[in-house]
Specification:
Length: 157
Amino acid sequence: MISIRRKPQEEALTRFGRAQEMARQGVESCRQGASSAAERIKPAADERVMVVRSWSAPRLRQAARYVETGLAPRVSMFLTDTAHRVEPPKKAKSGRGALMAMMGVVAAVGVAGVVATRRDTIRDLAKGSGEQSGEATSADSMTVTGADVDGQVHSPH
């Protein structure tokens, strides 16, 4: 087979190797130069960063105050107004609350009636057992039966 290359392959590889070595040296030289430049620039850059920070801090505080006192209330009011406009109209109340209140009152009256009935039943049982035979002396029995201390019932009319 006939080769169309003019230079032998070994010579091309050595040239490529030399180019790589030159590139490595160039990169190392650039790295060293950048490192020394960074060392020289760092103090000045630190000083400038502090100047910028001291300039920006009061402006940030001023902006924060404006947002708290001026902008936020306006945005809040705008959003509230928009919510009122977007909200669908409320349905008319069906009186369900009044109905529930009346049911609660009826239930309370029913419970009071049951308690009074049980109290009367217990009182009747106590009278029948002979414990309170004779005169009615308790204030509770006077209230319920209307009997006086001497056993006489007086009408309020």
